[in-house]
Amino acid sequence: MAGGSIRKRKKVTSQSTTPSTKKPSTKIDFAAHDSSDEESDHENLRSSNDRRRKRLNDVDINSDDEEEDGGGESEDDESEEEEISETVDEKRVRLAREYLRSIEKKVDDDDDGSSSEEEEEDETASSDAEGEDEDKFQNKVGMKLARERMKREGTLERTIADRVGASVEERSVGTAALKEEEAAKAWVAAGHAKYLRGHDLTVTCVALHCSGEVAYSGSKDGSVCMWDVETGTRKEMVVPKWSRKEQEKNQKTVHRADGEVLAAACSDDGRYLAVGMRDATTRIFDIRVSKAGKGLRGMVTSFKGHKGPVTCLAFRDQSLQLFSGSDDRCIRHYNLEEMAYIETLYGHQAGITGIDCHRNERPVSTGRDRTARSWKIAEDSHLIFRGGSRVSSADCVSCLKDDWFLSGHDDGKLSLWMTDKKKAVATVDTAHGFFGSLPRGVTSCCA
Questions:
Q1: Contacts 24+ apart (CB under 8 A), 281-288
Q2: Ordered DSSP codes for 317-349
Q3: 178-189 burial, b for 16+ CB within 10 Å, e for fewer?
Q4: Cys-Cys crosslink for 222: which of 199, 259, 397, 435, Cβ 3.0 to 4.6 Å?
Q5: Does residue 156 contact residue 148 with C-beta atoms inside 8 Å?
Q6: Contact 277, 308 (CB under 8 A)
Q7: Calpha distance 128→125 (Å, rounded)
């Protein structure tokens, strides 16, 4: 055993003493370098800490001015840290509280305005009365919030017919004995009505912008005008009038009658204006785009597909779904978010005269076949409503709710319908009186 160990040792020593023919190793001991670097870093850190302690000992921190400055900086830092540390839920709660405060302020302002005309109440009110006042205030805030929500959703209902009727009766007291033309001139002279002039031929359609400040009118002269509702002035020409010179200049052979505008509708978001033409096209305009040169103002696209004049247009409430009716007895469905055609609805046996759609995807249409139809698009079916053999065809239709609509007829009748009943719920005969011996037809209605 001893000899074996000696031989092994000699073998090791022989390997260490014999010169190697290989190149010398260039390996670097990183562990050693790391340890040396760490030691140098520790030494540098110690020296910097010593210098910092010495500097802090030399500085006088008992000055009042420095304390005030330092306090302001610390407050700013704290506010920044609070803003940074605010989570999404906390921000949502903060914004909700701010909104509630604004609503409460509006309610207080309304109460102050209404109470200024009345006598001031006694300051010594009982605790029960204070509790009742607080409950009333909370109810007013809740009603205000509900009203704002319904206004955003488009479901807010206001009854204004009585006020409008009383106003009309009050203003027509002095003109009741006059003839129709004289009464109309008297209304214009008194400022109760305005004539807006700008088209060369008959006006066929009017669409009101969602803001209520701007209106658009289409005419048989092929033009579409933008009007300022408050001042009654024409702001801009969305589509210029038909001109033979322009047609010859552009080398087009479009007949003047083909350029007639028959229908118009505005989207609820105020982005698009849809125009129905006699040449069976539906033109879409982006009314946010300013006019460039003498061309069409912001024209986005033109839908083709109808085989007859486009007589009516309607947007679904709070959406960009568009429905167009035509003399070809068809209703075409479009989606303006993708500027795409969706489908065609068949069922009417004569030309379509009016169409409207509320929040649900169930448009209502009227036609020359003396029927009104409610289309269930999701179920691919529709309901038919008939007024009877004595009722003429309807010229217009307007949706009050998803299941209520109004129709105006050639013979002067104004009918109220419910989708759950086949007959009209209520009917007003000769709603606009007579012209000689004939009743005046109802050509447009809105709700």
A1: 281/306, 281/310, 282/306, 282/310, 282/313, 282/322, 282/324, 282/332, 282/334, 283/239, 284/336, 284/339, 285/224, 285/238, 285/239, 287/209, 287/216, 287/226, 287/238
A2: TTS-EEEEEETTSEEEEEETTTTEEEEEEE--S
A3: eeeeeeeebbee
A4: 259
A5: no
A6: no
A7: 8
Q: Retrieve residue 311's tokens.
A: 């007589």
DSSP 258: G
Q: What does the block give as tokens for 146?
A: 């509900």
pTM across the whole model: 0.68
Distance between CA atoms of 338 and 272, rounded to whole angstroms? Answer: 13
DSSP collapsed to 3 states, 370-403? CEEEEEECCCCEEEEEECCCCCCCEEEEEECCCC
Q: DSSP string spanning 11-75?
A: HHHHHHHSPP-SPPP----HHHHHHHHHHHHHHHHHHHHHHHHHHHHHS----HHHHHHHHHHHH
Give the Cα separation of 276 and 259 in Å (integer).
10
Q: DSSP class of residue 196?
A: -
Each residue's pLDDT tens digit in the chain (447 positions)? Answer: 444 444 444 444 444 444 444 444 444 444 444 455 555 655 665 666 666 565 545 544 444 444 444 444 555 555 555 555 678 888 888 888 888 788 777 776 665 544 433 434 444 444 444 556 666 666 777 787 888 778 777 677 778 878 888 887 777 777 767 777 788 888 888 888 888 888 999 999 999 998 889 999 999 999 999 999 989 899 888 888 887 776 666 666 667 778 899 999 999 888 999 999 999 999 999 988 765 445 466 889 999 999 999 999 999 998 999 999 999 999 999 999 999 999 999 999 999 999 999 988 999 999 999 999 999 999 999 999 998 888 899 999 999 888 999 999 999 999 999 999 989 999 999 998 888 888 999 999 987
CA 272 – CA 287 distance, rounded (Å): 6
Residue 258, token pair as written in the block:
């083909």
